[in-house]
Amino acid sequence: MDWIMDFLMQKEHPVMENNTNIENLCNLKDVSVTVAKNERVLVIIELSGEVDEVAWKRLYSSYGVYLGRGSKLIITSRSNKVNNFGTTQALVLNFLPPEAYLYFFKILIFGSTYPSDHPELESIAMEIARALRGSFIDANITSCILQNNFDSHYWWIHLADFNKHIQRNVSLFAANPFDLIRKGKPISYQISDDEFVILDKHRECPDENNVPVITSKGLASRSVKYEDIDYLVWKSHIPPYKFYIASCTFEKSNKRMETS
Questions:
Q1: Domain boundaries, the chain
Q2: Terminal C-alpha separation, the chain
Q3: Could you tell me the superkingdom of the organism this chain comes from (predicted)?
Q4: pTM of the predicted structure, to 2 decimals
């Protein structure tokens, strides 16, 4: 937070010179910014893919044309390439330390209940949290499964299925599935003894008016046809209420064994 405040209070950096015709510049109205040139504004842009250098230069040139003096742009991206395009040092956001992530996970599951009142469940939660590799989405998904049922037998069943899920992906892809998701790699999710789905292309839904109706529960119950589909992984419950989706392909276990 201190770094961000320092950035916002800095004197403005000179806008890069560019001879590109104004009609070809990236108009900031495309990101719903319409302000008078004498106003200071903060524009925050989240990049979902790789950084395009040409597009960035066009945007930066537009910044000087359409926004008032002293305005600021903050660009967020998972790509390290964004480091080359800013006018100040990039701020790298790391994963929460294991202790902080465990605390966050237990708050999601236990809420106002003291975890120490349920030592057996707390132990299971700690084991699951260590395997989630710091994923906020998977922490929320898991908490939704466990938070309304404090029966230890139910939690042990979930832990057994959870460990099988990890072992299966380690066997197929030689990696923890939550590491694979973070790297944009496919994972396997078993839905029966001889049926499973390959989940791939985890991403934010680009069109909020076209969110898939199929959820992970629908996949597990086999209530969908065996075809390539997109499904809803998670809907954020805090602003801006983003939807996260993935693509899945249904396969038979024997088919995977034949192609291995």
A1: 2-84, 95-173, 186-260
A2: 49
A3: Eukaryota
A4: 0.70
